[in-house]
Each structure stands twice: as structure tokens, then as C-alpha cells.
């Protein structure tokens, strides 16, 4: 079922296969030019067809934000860790196209994602953020997440160690 929320001209709806070129482009940019994803080689475009159908088939949301009919970003979550005891805790990711940043789009996507998680009866939403990603940490603080741990040197990319900031949002 498609969900649409219109907030300040931003429409949030479920992702469809037609949106995946943008999702793929955001992924490639993040892999090649940032430490938002701790991976050196981007997935090929075809990976995302399977990714979307599996994720939606498992009942997880993949939301896109549209501005004037143009896809400006996406957000999604899945279970935080694999075992059954973690089923009420989810971990999300959120990406916004560079030319649309600073306009509240990630915030709008995240509010929709939190609404969906709460409606599903999830208990906690987690974010695992590279400690140098101060913009994302500020975004999550503004959304009510608190830092619960900073785990030093658990990642490596671009020939340097990366620390992981774990942030937590209790859901209603
Ligand atoms: C992080 C990201 C999702 C933010 O998207 P956005 O749509 O620009 O965020 P918003 O406009 O909703 O920002 C809301 C608040 O977050 C904070 N924020 C967002 N980006 C920031 C930045 N670069 N520097 C400092 N604070 C920032 C601010 O407090 C901002 O509120 P303000 O505009 O009133 O100051 C976007 O920059 C992005 O896609 N980055 C690359 C991928 C990434 O890092 N994803 C997160 C992985 S954990």
C-alpha cells in the first residue's frame, strides 16, 4: 500500500522500482565520496531491484520524498540485529540528493519513518553513524535521538580508522 504525506511541499510515499535510479545514485555517491557507508565498492544498479523487493516483501518501509515530482531522497529501516529478540528494534538509513539538502527533507522523511515504526509497534529506533558525520548527528539530535555509545575504531575506509556513534530513539 502506498502512503503519502504532504508536508511543506514534500510528498513522502512508498518507493517503487522507477525510483531506484535515484536510490542507486545516492548509494554510489555515498560509497565513493563519504564515510556514510563503510564500503569501498558500490553495488551495481541491478542489486537495488532485489533489495527493494526483498525489503518490501519482508514488510519494511522504503520511503521516498518527492518535491515537484522529483525524487529528492529516501529513508528505510530493517531489524537492527538478526535474532528474534531484536524484532522490536529497527535501524534506519536516510539519504538526500545533494541539491535538495538543507530544506528539511531528511526531517520529513524521518518523521514519516518514525510514524510507521510506531504504528507497527516497534519499540526503539537506532542509528549507526560515522562519528565524523556531524551533519547527520545534528539531524538525529534534532529529531530526539540520544547518543548511547561511541565505539572507537570499528571501521576502516580511505586508509583510516572510523568510530561509530550509536544513537537511540525510544518510540511511543
Ligand atoms: C544528513 C542528511 C540526510 C541531512 O539531510 P537534509 O535534508 O539536508 O536535513 P534537514 O534539512 O532535514 O536538516 C535538519 C537538521 O539537521 C541538522 N543538519 C542537517 N545537515 C546538517 C549539516 N550538514 N551540518 C550541520 N547540521 C545539519 C540541522 O540541525 C538541521 O536543522 P536546521 O536546518 O534547522 O539547521 C544529508 O546531508 C545527506 O543525505 N547526507 C549524505 C548521506 C548521509 O550522511 N546520510 C546519513 C547516514 S547516517
Automatic annotation (TrEMBL):
<keyword id="KW-0012">Acyltransferase</keyword>
<dbReference type="Pfam" id="PF00583">
    <property type="entry name" value="Acetyltransf_1"/>
</dbReference>
<feature type="domain" description="N-acetyltransferase">
    <location>
        <begin position="10"/>
        <end position="172"/>
    </location>
</feature>
<dbReference type="InterPro" id="IPR016181">
    <property type="entry name" value="Acyl_CoA_acyltransferase"/>
</dbReference>
<keyword id="KW-0808">Transferase</keyword>
<protein>
    <submittedName>
        <fullName>N-acetyltransferase family protein</fullName>
    </submittedName>
</protein>
<dbReference type="InterPro" id="IPR000182">
    <property type="entry name" value="GNAT_dom"/>
</dbReference>
Amino acid at each position: 500500500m502506498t502512503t503519502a504525506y504532504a508536508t511543506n511541499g514534500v510528498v513522502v510515499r512508498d518507493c517503487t522500482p522507477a525510483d531506484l535510479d535515484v536510490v542507486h545514485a545516492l548509494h554510489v555517491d555515498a560509497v565513493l565520496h563519504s564515510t556514510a557507508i563503510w564500503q569501498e565498492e558500490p553495488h551495481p544498479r541491478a542489486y537495488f531491484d532485489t533489495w527493494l523487493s526483498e525489503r518490501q516483501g519482508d514488510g519494511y518501509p522504503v520511503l521516498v520524498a518527492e518535491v515537484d515530482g522529483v525524487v529528492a531522497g529516501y529513508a528505510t529501516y530493517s531489524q537492527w540485529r538478526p535474532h528474534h529478540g531484536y524484532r522490536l528494534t529497527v535501524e534506519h538509513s536516510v539519504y538526500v540528493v545533494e541539491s535538495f539538502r538543507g530544506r528539511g527533507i531528511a526531517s520529513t522523511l524521518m518523521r514519516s519513518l518514525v510514524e510507521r515504526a510506531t504504528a507497527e509497534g516497534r519499540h526503539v529506533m537506532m542509528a549507526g553513524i560515522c562519528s565524523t558525520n556531524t551533519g547527520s548527528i545534528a539531524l538525529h539530535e534534532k529529531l530526539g535521538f540520544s547518543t548511547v555509545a561511541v565505539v572507537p575504531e570499528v571501521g576502516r575506509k580511505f586508509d583510516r580508522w572510523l568510530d561509530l556513534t550509536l544513537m537511540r530513539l525510544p518510540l511511543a
